[in-house]
Design goal:
The chain is built from seven helices and ten strands. By secondary structure, it is an alpha/beta fold. The strands form three sheets. Strands 2-1-5-8-7 form a five-stranded mixed sheet, with helices on both faces. It has a three-stranded mixed sheet with strand order 3-4-6. It has a two-stranded antiparallel sheet with strand order 9-10. The structure holds zinc ion (ZN) (2 copies).
Length: 222
């Protein structure tokens, strides 16, 4: 696992503070299971502005610029292109700098070039993106709890779940996912499958099954 300084959560201005707080807690839960000892925090404007790779004539004054510049304008509905957003953040592997992990949180649907569809979450090895869109009207469990479950899944992937050495309890659905009742299960039905996982988690069941928790620690040990 490449060395990264911290995990920075970058949310757009329409993400409610209670949702951002739930996402922060969700990422902290994953770091704790992974025993990764990484600080996790919500980004301030200056964190994002200083990291964005600027383009000519763009005046970058706030983190909102990242979400606006990353929009896909091909269709009539606004979609945030996760690939574009990550490319706009400074992520050059050739520079001798240590970068954070990025967790992007958008109120708009996400889009990715690689998959060509609209996922609820998306990741690169150094970043994850989640969209609130499919969950914004959820009441029971609340949108906050849904997002907490969703970001655990996305951050789990960001750290390398499920690793190639995992052979037990694996299903190949959009890449390797967990076959147990665990946040790393593939969410075939949205939001229904997330509702089920969130309810289990709220009943006190561990979010990651034993195999995934162990894999998480192995991935973070490098
Ligand atoms: Zn997944
Ligand atoms: Zn699992």
């Amino acid at each position: 696992m490449a060395r990264r300084s911290e995990i920075l959560i970058i949310a757009d201005a329409r993400v409610a503070p209670s949702v951002a707080a739930a996402i922060l807690e969700g990422v902290r839960d994953v770091v704790s299971v992974a025993q990764a000892k990484l600080p996790v925090r919500l980004a301030q404007d200056e964190d994002v502005v200083s990291r964005i790779r600027s383009r000519e004539d763009d005046i970058i004054a706030s983190s909102e610029w990242l979400f606006i510049a990353a929009q896909d304008t091909a269709s009539s509905t606004v979609k945030v292109n996760a690939d574009k957003a990550f490319l706009l953040l400074e992520t050059s592997v050739w520079e001798q700098k240590i970068y954070p992990y990025y967790v992007l949180v958008t109120s708009d649907p996400l889009r990715s070039d690689q998959y060509g569809f609209t996922p609820n979450w998306y990741r690169w090895t150094f970043g994850a993106a989640v969209s609130i869109k499919s969950f914004e009207n959820q009441k029971d469990p609340s949108v906050e709890e849904h997002m907490r479950t969703l970001v655990m899944h996305a951050a789990g992937h960001m750290f390398g779940l499920l690793p190639e050495w995992r052979v037990k309890d694996v299903v190949d659905e959009c890449g390797p996912h967990c076959a147990n009742q665990c946040v790393m299960k593939h969410p075939r039905y949205v939001p229904g499958d997330w509702t089920e996982l969130t309810r289990l988690r709220l009943k006190g069941k561990e979010p990651f099954c034993r195999s995934c928790a162990e894999n998480l620690r192995e991935c973070c040990r490098g």
